[in-house]
UniProtKB/TrEMBL annotation:
It comes from Vreelandella titanicae. GO terms for cellular component: cytosol. It comes from the Bacteria. It is an enzyme of class 1 (oxidoreductase). This is Glyoxylate/hydroxypyruvate reductase B. Pfam families: 2-Hacid_dh, 2-Hacid_dh_C. Its EC number is 1.1.1.79.
């Protein structure tokens, strides 16, 4: 029996998930897309009704070559890498994977907070490299986490989860920025809403958890960094381009701020010759905000459920642009 749906899948799907897709559709699976198989990928995309995967590369020119496409299901909460406007114009549904990665990404933020305040990587390297010869004096001391003021830039789902950890686990006063006030955070955690400039000036640890878009491009620029305390740390688990990276490097070099914990960068993978990779006061991780076995599995499963729900079920679970979408059979 020939299956009427065609799906292109890229990266991060388990065998069981690919099997579930194969039960209802012809599936073209690509472990990766690069120059060696781009033509095959485009040929598959030109016939596809659905596209699913992590780190999807899709631009307007590619969309023009995908006339049958009805749904794009990304295995990520962020969708700044996808052409939302063009998808909207074509009434192609875009689904993402919120909620299932919230707690893991908040854990990542806290890992970077702890590592940055207590100089975990630097001191672990000291032990590994045989540098622990005598008692540890003040030159190796860190800075407390508990009780410090935590500034959350972007108190959405992930920001709120970071705030909960800070307030409930570490007794941290919480400041946050958000488009509207968050009564739950204020009542449960005593969090206080601030304008960005005030938050930057008051916080001991500034944590970025905003989506990347034209409003948040270089939100943290040289001016913003200059407003921060010289003792403060900047944590970024959002997107590299929320920060003006050369300005950050300068601030870290000159003592404008004390330290940074970074999971995301303007260019990923981070070029090994980036100053950020070599600074003692910077902790870097390779964009692993959601990268645990449990969470990546849950993200992929939600993406599968979104795709199948859209093509054959009662609709997607978590769509970005549900308003532009009508079932294909209702369009013609
Ligand atoms: C993704 C992320 O794995 O969900 C997001 O937005 O940043 C990560 O969880 C990454 O974007 C690659 O797809």
């Amino acid at each position: 029996q020939t299956k009427s749906w065609r799906i292109v899948a890229v990266r991060r799907l388990s065998e069981a998930q690919l099997e579930a897709l194969s039960e209802v559709a012809e599936v073209d699976y690509f472990e990766d897309v690069d120059e060696s198989n781009r033509a095959d990928f485009m040929a598959a995309l030109s016939r596809a009704h659905g596209l699913i995967g992590g780190k999807l590369e899709l631009n307007e020119a590619m969309l023009a070559e995908a006339p049958a496409l009805q749904v794009v299901s990304t295995i990520s909460v962020g969708y700044d890498h996808l052409p939302l406007k063009a998808l909207n114009q074509r009434r192609i549904l875009l689904c993402n994977t919120p909620d299932v990665l919230t707690e893991t990404t908040a854990d990542t933020a806290f890992m970077l907070i702890m590592a940055t305040q207590r100089r975990l990587v630097e001191l672990s390297n000291l032990v590994r490299d045989g540098g622990w010869r005598t008692h540890i004096g003040p030159e190796y001391f860190g800075i407390d986490v508990h009780g410090k003021t935590l500034g959350i830039v972007g108190a959405g789902r992930i920001g709120a989860a970071i705030a909960r950890r800070g307030a409930l686990g570490f007794g941290m006063p919480i400041l946050y920025t958000a488009a509207s006030s968050k009564p739950a955070l204020e009542q449960q955690l005593g969090a206080k809403r601030r304008e960005l400039n005030d938050l930057l000036a008051e916080a001991d640890i500034v944590c970025l958890s905003v989506p990347y878009n034209s409003d948040t491009h270089h939100l943290i620029d040289a001016d913003a960094l200059a407003r921060m305390k010289t003792t403060a740390a900047l944590i970024n688990i959002a997107r590299g381009k929320v920060v003006d990276e050369p300005a950050l490097i300068e601030a870290l070099h000159s003592g404008g701020i004390r330290a940074a914990g970074l999971d995301v960068f303007v260019e990923e993978p981070l070029p090994p010759d980036s100053p950020l990779a070599a600074m003692d006061n910077v902790v870097t991780t390779p964009h692993i905000g959601s990268a645990t076995h449990e969470t990546r599995e849950a993200m992929a499963q939600l993406a599968v459920d979104n795709l199948l729900g859209t093509l054959i079920g009662s609709g997607p679970l978590t769509a970005v642009n549900e308003h532009v979408w009508r079932r294909a059979d209702a369009i013609e």
